[in-house]
Structure formats: C-alpha cells, structure tokens
Amino acid sequence: MDSPLINIMIKAAKKASRGLRRDFNELENLQVMTKGPADFVTASDIRTQQIIYDELSYAKPDWSFVMEESKPIKGKESKSIFIIDPIDGTTNFMHGNPNFAISIAAEVNDRLEAALIYSPITDEMFIAERGKGAFLNDKRIRVASRKKLSESLLVTGIPHIGRGNKELFLKEMKQLIPEVAGIRRSGSAALDLAWIASGRYDIFWERGLKIWDIAAGILLVREAGGFAQGLNGQDTDMWNGNIISGNDDIINALNEKLKHD
Length: 261
Fold this sequence. Notes:
Layout: H1 4-24, E1 32-36, E2 39-42, H2 43-59, E3 63-67, E4 77-88, H3 90-94, E5 101-108, E6 111-119, E7 124-129, E8 133-136, E9 139-140, E10 153-156, H4 166-176, E11 182-184, H5 189-197, E12 203-206, H6 211-223, E13 227-230, H7 235-239, E14 243-246, H8 248-259
Parallel strand pairs: 3-4, 10-11, 10-12
Antiparallel strand pairs: 1-2, 4-5, 5-6, 6-7, 7-8, 8-9, 12-14, 13-14
C-alpha cells in the first residue's frame, strides 16, 4: 500500500499530465520562452507546475517548495520540502519527442522520503519511498547487475550551446566508446535515473544538473538497490549537480577507466 504522501504526489502528477498530453498533441500552438542559450520554458511548464503546486500545497499547506520555474516558497515547515520539475526534458517536449517526465521528490529533515517520476506519454509511473523499494506501475524494479563495461549501456548528457565542458566530454567519449556496449543521450536526467532504477541503463553520469533534475531519481535508484553519488564520490558533489549512478561494480569500473586519463 502506498503511503498518504506518495498518493498525494501521484494524484498531483496525474492531474497535471492531462494538460501535458493535450499540449503535446497541439505543439503548433505552444508558447515558448527562452531563459538562456538552449534553455527553454513553455506555457506548459508553467501551467503544469502550478497544478502540481496547487494540489500539493492544498494537501500539505505548511510545506516548503523548490521548483524549477519559480523562486523557492518557504512554508511553516522549512524542513519538509517538495522538489518539483514540472517537465524534465522541455526541449524534447517542445520538439514532439515523448521522452520527458514530471519529477516530484519529498524531503523531510534533509532526507529524501518519497519520489515520483511520471512519463505522461508512455504512462509509466516510477515511485519510491524510503525503505520500501522502488516500483514501476506497481511492479518492483531493481538496478541492473552487470559488472563489465563491455556489457553495459551508458547514458549521459552531451554539451551543447551554453552548457557543458566540450573538451572533457570528447575526452571521456574517446576513452569509453571502445570499451562499452553503447552510449545514449536521452535529454531527461530524471528519466535517465528512473531507467537506471529499472535496469534499462547500467550507468548514468552527468555534470551541472539542478536539484529538481535529480532528487526523485536519487531515491529511486537507491531504493532499487543501486548507488547515486557525486562524481568525486561525495554526496555534496552530487547535490551540486555532478552525479553518477548504477550498481557499485559498474560505477567503480567507469571511475577507474576515467581516472587513468
């Protein structure tokens, strides 16, 4: 049985997804604004965030909120926080690519308690609660158990206009391409982490992410038996947006490979 907290989050995501699916089928009418180089926000992002906020704040009026498309909202319970990305993968969404998701995490007293990543187009609901495991549409999920890079499917971000260290990326690709079964770039860090939790990818790493990109995915991976940590091995680095996740063996294998170069 899901807890009242996760049920509140599911209800909010489901309600917000109705408009997202409608907008996804009417992209020619989509209002798009630019926050920076290749950094977009759509009317759908803003409306989706508002619906989620309205639902969650009605159920938990004293909680605080950290959300991508607005400034933080401090409630009476400053140590109880919802962390929300209304559309993780906005660029995908506005191009008609279905690889985007709603991401909601609940943090209490500096500890992640509940997580939800929902793909509206595929209707895949990833949820996790601390100590209760991770699930995809009510089916228990686990991280993959592969130990060799040569058998592993990797996923990462790719630098683009206005973002990323292109030289470092090319250096890493030069080292990894001959060693692995494949490398992907999906455009949604939240879904990448959900797919790590469900065993669809073996390892994910990326730099320069935001807390709303990764908070829910971190708990999902950990509750699925995997590891999520900073690229330097420290949680502080992870919360600064530099993350690596997968099973322990494959993380060590990747780190060893990159460390030599």
